[in-house]
Amino acid sequence: MEALAVSLAALLLTAGTLLFAALTLRSKADGTEVELSLAALRTRVSLLETKLRECNKNLERESTLRRRAEEDRLAAQLEVAKLRHGRT
To answer: Distance (Å, rounded) from C-alpha 45 to C-alpha 88?
Structure first.
């Protein structure tokens, strides 16, 4: 889970860097080359946003699985305790 959080932070940092670079390019130059660079940066940011959404979904799934596993573990402990005390 910690590795996913670090990955998410890296993705956010990269996206922020790309957006800053796009703004810098826009302020320093003009013309087709810059427009192409901005388009490439927008595409990269879009891909990073997609990756971030995937990571968020994976985190949600992992959280759900951990919660269900904990619920199953507690239910099993309860059943064992009942059996040990002669109650079913």
So the answer is: 57
